[in-house]
Amino acid sequence: xxxxxxxxxxxxxxxxxxxxxxxxxxxxxxxxxxxxxxxxxxxxxxxxxxxxxxxxxxxxxxxxxxxxxxxxxxxxxxxxxxxxxxxxxxxxxxxxxxxxxxxxxxxxxxxxxxxxxxxxxxxxxxxxxxxxxxxxxxxxxxxxxxxxxxxxxxxxxxxxxxxxxxxxxxxxxxxxxxxxxxxxxxxxxxxxxxxxxxxxxxxxxxxxxxxxxxxxxxxxxxxxxxxxxxxxxxxxxxxxxxxxxxxxxxxxxxxxxxxxxxxxxxxxxxxxxxxxxxxxxxxxxxxxxxxxxxxxxxxxxxxxxxxxxxxxxxxxxxxxxxxxxxxxxxxxxxxxxxxxxxxxxxxxxxxxxxxxxxxxxxxxxxxxxxxxxxxxxxxxxxxxxxxxxxxxxxxxxxxxxxxxxxxxxxxxxxxxxxxxxxxxxxxxxxxxxxxxxxxxxxxxxxxxxxxxxxxxxxxxxxxxxxxxx
Length: 469
Ligand code: SAH
Hints:
Layout: E1 14-18, H1 22-33, E2 37-41, H2 47-55, E3 59-61, H3 67-71, E4 75-78, H4 83-95, E5 100-102, E6 115-119, E7 122-126, H5 133-146, H6 151-168, H7 172-184, H8 187-192, H9 196-209, E8 216-221, H10 232-238, E9 243-246, H11 252-255, E10 263-266, H12 275-290, E11 294-299, H13 309-318, E12 322-326, H14 331-339, E13 351-356, H15 368-371, E14 376-381, H16 387-396, E15 404-409, E16 417-422, H17 426-432, E17 439-443, H18 450-453, E18 455-457, E19 464-466
Parallel strand pairs: 1-2, 1-4, 2-3, 4-5, 8-11, 8-12, 9-10, 9-11, 13-14
Antiparallel strand pairs: 6-7, 14-17, 15-16, 15-17, 18-19
Helix pairs in contact: 1-2, 6-9
Bound molecules: S-adenosyl-L-homocysteine.
């Protein structure tokens, strides 16, 4: 983050605006809306700006700005058209640690003014740290569209009830669950439809009936890495979880989308995980759910594909804990899509099979002859170490050395790497490329379609792009 977003209470506090034109007026309006004590200093001050200051018990001084003006202010905005004056104001303020914003001159600012969506008391502030004002405006528009017009009234209604809720439900977790149930109820819609007294009545009824929260476990697939591949439901639950137990494969970008005050617990499950570790995870799930918390078990890819999701669910079901399962995009689908390899194709593959390449005592216990089928794609998870074994065994059991095969590592992320070759050449290519896990191996005629599809993720920019070769 390039700057710390905060909401400053400037009610009754002296805020200095240097400048008297249109831009100064815009900034002064914002300050006035937040209840600031306005001091406008400039040789020329426009009529509307003068009026605004008067209407808010502010002062207008028609003269050049001096260092003392800045020294006595709590916040300074320079909006003059004289760059030397702007520079001086910035210098004087920064010397004293007084927050200063110089319009359109980021280098002279100690704080930036965000774009805002104002449905007070709900205020959304948006900044691109100067990178793209147009993008910022787009995001503002999106928020304007998404936020119901009467969300201010909903916020006021909820705010007016906080004291009562605190008296009725004495633990924090219980209150959180109650507030969530309010937002999930028909109350917001009643407020948005202008039926506020009905909404207030409904609120009181819900509060009367409030029970201690019941714990729940959500087994959620986080997809292969790109946060854009999270499902809407996964995202929604990520905002609601009290505690999140996550795997080694869940990326930092995805974890950043979890509610900030949720407890994050890393249960670094790797291919070498022992059943004792799995037992400890099951115990943790039960323990947290037993305290009435909403527990998210966040797993890479899909929880039911090489994710031991089934084992965790059986424990929960036996203990009578409520649970939900949210599927995720599994590594094979994500990697294949981002690498431009269709896993099935009418001409080249009529079926696809997901396997684990996890070695036990250096060998792989698979029914090799059954894997050698016409028009069939094989995808090996956890197979980087066993790549030579996989390629060797497939050839030994009759698959041609010329069969196309690829390894996709860190698929769908900015660090995605693809190495494509044949059963004969792939192990050496991968070793030379120093490919690191996580990676999957895709074997089948479909691999050669990759070039034809012209989709690829540039390894330099990490961006998904469409290029004509
Ligand atoms: N439940 C997960 C798989 C867990 S097993 C899923 O549905 O995807 C872990 C294996 O998944 C890794 O060893 C690797 O083979 C594969 N994998 C997970 N994320 C990957 C990624 N971003 N790129 C390539 N392979 C990945």
